[in-house]
Design a protein that fits this description.
This protein is an alpha/beta fold and 313 residues long. The protein contains 10 helices and 12 strands. The protein binds guanosine-5'-diphosphate.
Length: 313
């Protein structure tokens, strides 16, 4: 595995997407590093606008880039908003990576997603399963955009010698999540739904799908810690998974959220809503070999996420 010894200290570091859950977590993590962080809010810089991005890079000249900006959402958003998901995400990836190349950024990390793997790939998902089979239909547009980003990073390394790396985080949760009842991911959706049911003393809570799919979750602060670690120690065109190494069924997960929130009514399943991929567990062997392991248990992470929800509400 291609390791590196990249000195982040003293560098001008651009966190693209710093107001999103992932970018905000990377920002929190970077506050422990001796770096000069630069950011640009959406009002200031539209990352889909090629000339605006090129101008901003020429002026700001970041040395290291965390490309955490993306249009994201849960299973329903991915399906309904597929045009926005493919357009925004390809535009952001191509504009930022090409600008980083033109302005000779020393290093760039592209953040992908575990949904880039084939729907029915063997589990746990190893990095080499990329592009070995058809994608899950509910998030195909998003996955294709993320695969384009991965291949772009790889191509720029090969042709131009850019030190671009790509990481694939598993399902994330934590502070700064989107709690939209329809478009959120499952963790935020269920924290909110169980909390509101508790307050309203509702007799039942509805969970989408059959409860049988299995998902792996990682707290976003753990993921940010892994990103900063990999930025320093990893340099290769091979993608690298970031996960906790453990998965759980949606039914067991829902029961856990109910317990943490303190809801004791019934849980019902709505099989008219999609299940998505049956299982999504990442193989974290490469990450492990690079000396990083997730610290936060799902139970502790969910407690933190529930506290964050109560604060952010
Ligand atoms: P995915 O990993 O891309 O499928 O992302 P999600 O976080 O949106 O969904 C994960 C799993 O949780 C899927 O099997 C969903 O059907 C299930 N799920 C159960 N209830 C909900 C909910 O209220 N919202 C979402 N987004 N997913 C839910």
């Amino acid at each position: 595995m291609a390791t590196a010894d990249y000195e982040l200290r003293g560098k001008r570091v651009f966190v693209a997407g710093h107001r999103g859950m992932v970018g905000a977590a990377i920002l929190r993590r970077l506050s422990n590093e001796d770096v000069d962080v630069v950011t640009a809010g959406r009002d200031q810089l539209d990352l889909r606008d090629q000339s605006a991005v090129f101008d901003w890079f020429a002026e700001s000249r970041p040395q290291a880039v965390f490309l955490a900006a993306a249009k994201v959402g849960g299973i329903a958003a991915n399906h309904a908003l597929r045009a926005e998901f493919i357009y925004d995400n390809i535009a952001i990836a191509t504009n930022v990576m090409h600008a980083a190349y033109l302005n000779r950024a020393e290093k760039l990390m592209f953040l992908g997603s575990s949904c880039i793997y084939p729907k029915l790939a063997p589990q746990p998902l190893r990095e080499e399963y990329l592009l070995t089979g058809p994608l899950e239909a509910t998030n195909e547009a998003y996955a294709v955009a993320k695969i384009a980003g991965i291949k772009m990073a790889e191509a720029y390394r090969h042709q131009y010698g850019c030190d671009f790396i790509s990481v694939m985080p598993t399902n994330l949760y934590g502070p700064g999540d989107n709690y939209d009842p329809e478009y959120s991911h499952v963790v935020a959706a269920l924290i909110r739904r169980f909390h509101e049911a508790k307050i309203a003393d509702a007799p039942k809570v509805v969970v989408w799908g059959t409860g049988t799919p299995r998902r792996e979750f990682i707290h976003v602060d753990d993921m940010a810690d892994a990103c900063v670690h990999l930025m320093k120690v990893y340099s290769s065109s091979d993608i690298i998974n970031i996960g906790s190494g453990r998965d759980i069924s949606i039914a067991d997960f829902a029961a856990l959220v109910a317990r943490i929130v303190g809801y004791d009514g019934a849980i019902e399943y709505d099989a008219s809503r999609p299940d998505g991929t049956p299982r999504k567990l990442l193989d974290v062997g490469r990450l492990d070999a690079l000396g990083w392991r997730a610290e936060t248990s799902l139970e502790n992470g969910l407690r933190l996420a529930y506290e964050a929800y109560l604060e952010e509400r």
